[in-house]
Amino acid sequence: MLAKTFGAAVFGVNAAIITVEVTVGQGTLFFLVGLPDSAVKESAQRVEAAMKHIGCFFPRNKIVVNLAPADVRKEGSAYDLPIALGIIVASGQARFPDFERYIIMGELALDGILRPIKGVLPIAIEARSQGFKGFILPKENAMEASIVNNLDVIGVGTLREAFDFLTGKLVVEPLVTDTRDLFFNTQNDYDADFANVQGQENIKRALEIAAAGGHNVIMIGPPGSGKTMLAKRLPSILPPLSLHEALETTKIHSVAGKLGAQASLVSRRPYRAPHHTISDAALVGGGSNPQPGEISLAHNGVLFLDELPEFRRTALEVMRQPLEDRKVSISRARWVVEFPANFMLVASMNPCPCGYYNHPDKECTCPPGAVGRYLSKISGPLLDRIDLHVEVTPVSFDQMTANRRTESSESIRERVIKAREHQTVRFQDMPGVYSNAMMPSQMVKDVCQLSDAGKALLKTAMERLQLSARAYDRILRVSRTIADLGDADDIRIEHLAEAIQYRSLDRENWAG
User: Cα(269)–Cα(262) distance, rounded to whole angstroms?
Assistant: First the structure.
């Protein structure tokens, strides 16, 4: 007898429907075909134990399980549940009237309990688009799948519950989530606020400009000057995620298995801060079964690289292409997987190995040439892709103990949102461009018009700082953002001058 049900495989951040065909006939062996990996092949032992636990028998006949299309590699343990139910039907132990109208996924424990799986959201989206009635999956993943409307999300805790639901013995109400209500009620919940930061007004200004235009930032300063503290507060002044951005971000975190039990929509901008020992593949994505890296997990949010020179040079260099293209392409012999990577890069570093070069009170103990060698760990092409270079100085005792009220993240965010509104209007006919930092080079000349005095100032800066053509474009983009924050139609000379001052690392003899 032949039984057929449906599962799904995740490739990148999208899913494809997999047909699970099971037949039981004459013979004695179990065959699992359709390019399964080791985790899928091992399902036979899990399925047999789980079936016995609910009182079903595992046939001693010849069992053939085919995962179609057969030329696509199947990975992971999420095929346990459809295989178990398929064997039950194919061996004549039960009939499930709506068996072929559901996508069924889940990993089985030996006692029949269902364990959570990865990639639920893209599977649910594909199930709805393919016209399936519902999605049967582990309870822990039901909240995530319920983001997708017009799909019956049936969360079950055990193989027995799935069996009873399909035979009609158990009624399970589909889980329904008000996505918009959930999204709008949680999108402004941030633990850190700029109101708690005393001093550092120039750094707050630089981060406000970065947030308003989506620009990359590097902060250079001695230990304890507040670089990490300021970076953690940057997401709190970024514009709220749109519902489309939230769904896109949630898909990536779902594929990577980062949502956790009972999680649903990612409603706040991500903040990722990997350790400097991270590998190239963990940073940008990859592996034998390509998974999103930290730069994709930071999609629509902030990627913070603390102590930038301590990261492996190769790991930093592979970020150069994603910083420009805002996506990562991972090529394998038979397919190419793309992960989105539209993130704001925020980096920090000490000015020298000892950390006290240019410190107002402490003396640098580094030998001659050490500062230059330390800075040279970061390549010029990578620094060119960072729009704002900000020097962070230590906060004085008087500033730390002052009771002066400082500006909250909410008020800064209002100005940032207003500046982004200008950019939304500016780029309304440019699909895929949402901020000044994403502006293509051919648009820069049209959007960032300068007066004669501005051209003369920029020419002098280019010659003295020996700036590259890419740095020239970055200055124009930043000056356009500063003008947007000032509600100005044209880039004035003061906007341009402020943008030029944020190229600290381009200054001649900065490192001695």
Answer: 19
Tokens 């293209």 label which residue?
Answer: 325
* Mean pLDDT for all residues in the chain: 88
Q: Which residues contact 338 (CB under 8 A, 6 or more apart)?
A: 12, 327, 328, 329, 330
Domain extents for the chain?
A: 2-167, 186-433
The structure tokens listed for 437 are 């930092």
Centre a 10 Å sphere on the Cβ of residue 110 and count the other Cβ atoms it contains.
13
The confidence score (pLDDT) of residue 499 equals 92
Q: How far apart are CA 311 and CA 274, in angstroms?
A: 10
Residue 124 and residue 126: Cα distance in Å, rounded? 5
Domain 2-167 has CATH 2.40.40.10: no
Q: Which of 208, 254, 277, 228 is nearest to 105 (CA)?
A: 254
Assign 3-class secondary structure to 431-444: CCCCCHHHCCHHHH
So what's the pLDDT on residue 395? 78
Q: What are phi and psi of 244, to 5 degrees?
A: -65, -45
The residue ranges of the chain whose pLDDT is under 50 are 509, 512
φ, ψ for residue 346, nearest 5 deg: -120, 120
State how far the Cα of 6 lies from the Cα of 135, in Å rounded to an integer.
Answer: 10
Q: State whether CATH 3.40.50.170 applies to domain 186-433.
A: no
d(CA 91, CA 112) in angstroms, rounded, equals: 19
Asked if residue 403 lies in contact with residue 206, where contact means CB atoms within 8 angstroms, the answer is no
Report the run of H or E that residue 15 belongs to, with start and end. strand 14-25
pTM of the model: 0.87
Q: Which residues pair with 156 in a beta bridge?
A: 138
Nearest to 232 by CA among 261, 197, 266: 197
What integer pLDDT is reported at residue 371 of this predicted model? 82
Question: β-pairing, 336-340 with 327-331?
Answer: antiparallel
Q: What are phi and psi of 158, to 5 degrees?
A: -145, 165
Is residue 400 within 8 A of residue 198, CB to CB? The reply is yes
CA–CA gap between residue 372 and residue 99 (Å, rounded): 67
How far apart CA 496 and CA 478 sit, in angstroms, is 8
**Element spanning 328, H or E:** strand 327-331
pLDDT per position as a tens digit, 157-203: 999 999 999 999 999 999 887 777 766 766 666 778 888 888 788 89
Give 107's strand partners.
115
- Looking at residue 509, what is its pLDDT? 47
How many Cα atoms are found within 13 Å in the side-chain-facing hemisphere of 288?
A: 6
